[in-house]
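Internal tracking record. Fields below are filled automatically when a chain is submitted to the structure queue. Please do not edit lines marked as system-generated. If the sequence contains nonstandard residues, flag them in the REMARKS field before resubmitting.
Queue: standard
Priority: normal
Entity type: single polypeptide chain
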Amino acid sequence: MSQENVEIVGRVTTEFSEKQQLSELVSPAIVWHAGSWAEWPGQSDYRGHAGFSRFFAEWVEPYEEWTQEDENVIDAGGDHVVTATLQRGRLRGTDSWVELRLAFLYTIEDGQIVRGEVYASPEAALEAAGPAD
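SYSTEM-GENERATED OUTPUT FOLLOWS
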């Protein structure tokens, strides 16, 4: 099951990076938890596809252009997958680009992502996932 979960997350994040829209492999009841990343100034939890869309709009608001690339997709055991991600954005009204490395902890149930959490590092996300099965 873990390899299948890695493939699900890889497909979802690749599709999202290319189209900035959620895959059918993301549960309509997803909970997106941004509160685990201390730097996030917004609310902690966003629920459902509409909630995630609201989060993402807030996330990319400072940028005219934004890209994301998974640098590593890690089987964290059981129903968890961690991605180490590089994001780049060009700030509105400037030629300045900024980069941010983050990690995301995904929980998969019945072939869909049901939860996503934002972390400052893959190590922090793996620790939150708990011991691998």
